[in-house]
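User: Structure tokens for both sequences below?

Assistant:
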Amino acid sequence: MSEYRNLIGGELLAAASGRTLDSVNPATGRVWARIPASGPADAEAAVAAARAAFPAWSAMPALGRAGHLRKVARIFTEHAEELARVETRDNGRILRDTLKKDLPGMTYLWELAAGQVLDAVKGDSVILGPSSMGFTRREPYGVVVCVIPWNSPISTFSGKAAHALAAGNTVILKPAEQASVSMLRLAELLADVLPPGVLNIVSGLGEEVGDALVRHPGVDKVSLTGSTETARVITRAGADALKPMTFELGGKSPNIVFADADLDAAAQGLTVNSIFTGNAGQVCVAGSRILIQRPVWDETLERVRAIAGHIRLGDPLDLATTMGPIVSPGQYDRVTGYLEIAEKEGAERVFGGRHGADALGGGPGAAEFAGGYWVEPTLYTTTDNSLRICQEEIFGPVAVAIPFDTDDEALAIANDSRYGLAAGVWTRDLARAHRFVRDLHTGNVWVNTFRQMPPGLPFGGVKDSGYGNDSLLSYTREKTAIIQL
């Protein structure tokens, strides 16, 4: 049993109360680590440490901050396998994703942020007249609280912290209580890499330490990746202080297949790269609504069924495993509850539906993981986009397919959602592709691909999927000055 501590002011500390929370391996259902159950006292200490570190960090030449960010990048390179295994054990995201995709990508992201530091101190100038000029300068906000979810802690942490630190802010990270261990192990590795107080990592329940951080008058900005309901709670908590906030929230992303599409590529994009594999559909951009033009309806469903039939559930640490478990008992109950809702609503099940030990199929090693939170890939069909399984975010390996006839009908179904995070379009028609990029009410559109989120491009949503993004400039504010000579 491993026990982890917070990082506050460069020191590794237990929660002030001495309380801990259990971390459960979702593949087995067994406790494997303990994390601090932090509260208001720990939030106060973290804010004090971050505020004390801010003057020197923000005043440091940008290239000096870049040097520190490159040290962080080296930590990700040197400890990639360990961090990948810890995250896989903690949240069930399969090792072939954490090790082969996440960690190499994060090394690149921190290096990229180091190379962009000068953008955070650039401004514009305007000659207003013979003896007057105006200019702008970018400044960091100060202390930034970053709240991250359990589905991909290493990636989400890096997307926020690398840019916030590059811009000259100090950071307090609040990881999700369901999966904090990779962040707390990272805290141990980074304790001597960054100046004390520049990065602080505090675990615990949202209603205890998270609420205290968001409400604290010493916090200058909040950045959340999480659920829409969590965003509403944070908005209310921070309303009195009028803190600037960035929200990257949930989605109910449409993945639209036209009759002229490359159906082999589309079928991969509807399954392996979208909703089922890797993190078991626990991805904000998961293509959980599959819209298929009627002439290729049957053929596309058969291709999807064939691919789903080869998805392998099992030990997330086995590189041959292609889909892991649901993260926690609460999320497992939510996902399986939607299976019942789908049946009651009259949706037709194409495949899947088994959960618990039954989802493992009794294969080798099934007994070892029988206590885990398993749901097999599941697909329903309907013609009614108003069903709850079409409108509500399930956050699991459950998709629903809807037929359409015309471009206008596809667009209407796709936009008929309170979410607006992402969409996929599969077509060989260039004019149609551009029309859908323009007319889809989402923050991201992928054409003939899906779930591509390179660090060099902004990522965010509209409607109930949030606003803002985690780019470098989003962690700066612009000041205008006018000088009369």
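Moving on to the next sequence.
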Amino acid sequence: MTETALSHNGILIRLPDERWQPIIQRHTVLTDKKQLVLNTLSNPTRILEGNDGALLAIQQFEPARWLVVAYREEGDDEFVITAFPTRRINFLNRRRQIW
């Protein structure tokens, strides 16, 4: 099943099962946090520039832990690339902030 969320820019972003399954296999802490991933797309704390035209929606979800959702808004196929938790906020702070 494909879930969707409106990005901060008002673009409908897809999160299909074929993207979700590898995310939760690699990051088991996100297994029950699909809605958090979708909410992060819609209501990020900030948006950073990712690699190869991707955007990174960031939201803190635990003390000293952030959720990063990488996604694309360009073209005809807007979708979540991946999502992962991190404590490495300094690494994220090196990226250009878009919003």
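User: Anything stand out in the second?

Assistant: The mean pLDDT is 95.
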